[in-house]
TrEMBL record:
Basic residues bias spans: 328-341
EC number: 6.5.1.8
Cited InterPro entries: RtcB (IPR001233), RtcB-like (IPR052915), RtcB-like_sf (IPR036025)
Annotated segments matching region Disordered: 323-342
Enzyme class: ligase
Catalytic reaction equation(s): a 3'-end 3'-phospho-ribonucleotide-RNA + a 5'-end dephospho-ribonucleoside-RNA + GTP = a ribonucleotidyl-ribonucleotide-RNA + GMP + diphosphate
Cofactor: Mn(2+)
Protein name: 3'-phosphate/5'-hydroxy nucleic acid ligase
Length: 397
């Protein structure tokens, strides 16, 4: 479909979904964003839903300003996926051992490694810029400095909520590895620190929503935020890279006879800020629950833990600021999902998937999410589908 345009105070709101299907709270958030003095464009993806601070599934383009709440607390959260040489025929009938081995290698929930993972211990794996990255920790906000040890031990860990590691099979029978995570606790604390700073600045006092407080160009607060933001985005990128190395290591050990090989990784942020140019203007583009989908760029759009996911290639649609959705998107809150569904429902909706089926993950049940096929169909002018994957193992925190 092409987009629908809803009038906004400063800019029109371009929506790749039926505006009537968007809940009132999310629509109000979008209208509030459209009032910001610095805004130059607002695009809304088909996975749109109400979010803390700002709407999930929104792409906000501003000139000379950035809103930390529009990035969210999981700075740099995103996806990585890699196609393997294994096929469905290589997988055992009982996948519980494989799931257990993945959980042993990659700490989940609030878990962390006993000490920092050394990328150098993995054969043939080089982490460009690794030492420089950690050296720049000295330059981040003082309020998080005491978290350095925790940040090093959480590097290469999954977290909880909608984060996951999956073994998937595509339509041709090839096995893929996929994972979803971000900047862990250090990103959250940096985000919350800067949100607090922004809300106290004088230029934000008249805003319609205090969560939309911004930093503006050429101020020390903006410089400090962008420094910490870009560091946290790197943390998230490295976090996924190390998890994928650990994941591949499990696969190599479990399928020694097959000698698995791996194609080039696909990786994309979906909560982040990028400097991009549109219509002759240098803009700060914030994607909260959206991926970049420039022409020919690969991306990942996951569904839920019982449906499937898509590998896509961007079509470079500038009306969406070269963006696409980051997933299926929730159609109900976690609280509502827990009220509505039982563990029996979870078992039914994840039939055929080796995963947790207990009350701790009922809020992640497929029924709490929009149908991924419809979400993909609504953005046919944003991305081209390259592969459809179906998970057979799903590890949750």
């Amino acid at each position: 479909m092409s987009y629908a345009e809803v009038p906004g105070a400063k800019v029109p709101i371009r929506m790749w979904t039926d505006p009537a299907s968007v809940e009132a709270g999310a629509m109000q958030q979008l209208q509030n964003v459209a009032t910001l003095p610095w805004i130059k464009g607002l695009a809304v993806m088909p996975d749109v839903h109400y979010g803390k601070g700002a709407t999930v599934g929104s792409v906000i383009a501003m000139h000379g300003a950035v809103c930390p709440a529009a990035v969210g607390v999981d700075i740099g959260c995103g996806m990585s996926a890699v196609k393997t040489s294994l096929t469905a025929n290589d997988l055992p009938g009982d996948l519980s051992r494989l799931r257990s081995k993945i959980e042993q290698a990659i700490p989940v929930g609030r878990g962390m490694h006993e000490s920092m993972v050394d990328p150098g211990r993995f054969h043939g794996f080089a982490m460009a810029g690794w030492d420089d990255f950690w050296g720049r920790f000295d330059g981040v906000a003082e309020t998080v400095k005491f978290r350095q040890e925790r940040a090093t031990k959480q590097m290469g860990t999954l977290g909880s909520g909608n984060h996951f590691c999956e073994v998937c099979i595509d339509m041709s029978g090839s096995v893929w590895l996929m994972l979803h995570s971000g900047s862990r606790n250090i990103g959250k604390e940096l985000a919350e620190h800067h949100m607090g700073v922004a809300q106290k600045l004088s230029h934000n006092q008249g805003l319609i929503d205090r969560d939309l407080a911004v930093f503006i160009a050429d101020t020390p607060q903006m410089a400090a935020y962008r420094n910490d933001l870009y560091w946290a985005q790197e943390y998230a990128k490295y976090n996924r890279a190390i998890m994928m190395v650990l994941f591949k290591d499990v696969i190599r050990r479990e399928f020694k006879k097959a000698r698995p090989t791996f194609e080039r990784e696909i990786s994309c942020h979906h909560n982040y800020v990028a400097e991009e140019r549109y219509e002759g203007m240098d803009l700060l583009v914030t994607r909260k629950g959206a991926i970049r989908a420039g022409s020919g760029e690969y991306g990942i759009i996951p569904g839920s833990m019982g449906t499937g996911s898509y590998i896509v290639k961007g079509l470079g649609n500038e009306k969406s600021f070269n963006s696409a959705s980051h997933g299926a998107g929730r159609k109900m809150s976690r609280t509502a999902a827990k009220r509505r569904f039982s563990t029996r429902d979870l078992e039914e909706q994840t039939r055929g998937v080796e995963c947790r089926k207990d009350s701790g993950v009922v809020d992640e049940i497929p029924g709490a999410y929009k149908p991924i096929e419809k979400v993909i169909d609504q953005q046919r002018d944003l991305v081209q589908v390259v592969a459809k994957l179906k998970q057979v193992v799903c590890v949750k925190g």
